[in-house]
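INSTRUCTION: Work out how this chain folds

Fields: amino acid sequence; protein backbone structure tokens

Chain under study, with its fold:
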Amino acid sequence: MENFDFLSPLDARYKNVLLPLSKYCGQNCLTKNRIKAETEYFILLSSLGLPDFPLLNKTEFAYIKDLQNLTQTDFDIINEIENKGYKNIPATKHDVKAIEYFLKIKFEKHKTLKNKTNWLHFAITSEDINSIAYALILADGLEKVLIPVLENLLKDLKTLARKEEKNPMLARTHGQAAIPTTFGKEIAVFYSRLKKQITDLKTLKPTCKFNGAVGNFNAHYSVFPSINWQKAAQNLIKKLNENRKIKIKLSSVTTQIDNYDSFAEIFDNLARINNILLDLAQDFWRYISDGWLKQKIVKGEIGSSTMPQKVNPVYFENAEGNLGLANAILKFLSAKLPISRLQRDLSGSTVIRNIPVALAHSLLAYQNLVKGLKRIIFDRKKALEVLKENPQILAEYFQTLLRANGVNNAYEIIKNLTRTYNFSDKELNNFLAKQNLNNNLKNKIKQAKVEEYIGIAPLLVKEIK
């Protein structure tokens, strides 16, 4: 046995939690999608009325469809064909050509298909197959894994926002005590931002190409000029889109590769989602640090190897790290894939293989945020204490009230009163005694409470859908 160790924590430490994504975006899935593209194209060819290629009979059709259900032995054979050689086939050192040779081996075992192997990979380039395969991987990763987890996270944020919609807390701008808000409303901000981006993400379709070596159907039309090859390619994509929510889309004008602009749009959308969640993770970390959020203690869990009392905000920290790493890859993919010298160079080929890596780090972050949200409890008492320790935050209300009642220089007057660290009721009373204000106005100022100065924060939470 070879002495092998994992290079990535995705396939070691995080393997089990990433199994849902591996099911749709792993290396075996890439192989499956290539096989599917090749075999569905073969089936399509048989329906075009090409000479010496009649429509497949039921037995042939069933046999080809069954080839799409790859076994581990099949994967091993394809790997050997590419890297070592298999039986009388030399190593191809080409992944898509290995797929073609594998299918030839399978076809040669069938009594009638063995005479039709010349139609495998007919008039197309490997990039036609890869383009479809990667589009399917990206679509599956979004539809089957990332979007459902994001929607669960969205649901949890909505529940938390509604639960805490009326509970006041100190808002900080520039890190300084500003005015009151509610914890629920601040969660509603993240909910609203995230919902918009998820909604946008659902509308995006990964594109692909299927038009030959440089995008002109050169070989197709030179041999069979009477066939509508553009329509045939569209029918292939239509077939591959059956039972899919996020569908792939055919690019009509390309070089040897798809332009990947649609991929860039998806990556940029995911990066925006990740930025929103990065913002959330850092804010929650701060709330935990300040003691406004408590973390549920789980028996048996260890927070620190040397300080037994600690319950670290590890889920939010893990999310932050993975979101940053995911975005670094997503942004590079977005910038790199749409650029290829002339009609095609191979620099993007090694890059595109890392799409599942970017999705995996994003998924890890989403999973950690879901776990983190289930562990936190908003300490309403602590948040209220902090509010009351900062009575000067009513300065905005005071100066606005004075302005509304015709007092000149209200801002400057209140600034001199409240810009102090020991602002107190006594100072406020001394200030009011010196002001030429009616008693009704003085009473409004005296009776003001920080916990009640929250505007329409609860209503804003109620409005989120």
About this structure: Residues 52 and 372 are 62 Å apart (CA to CA).
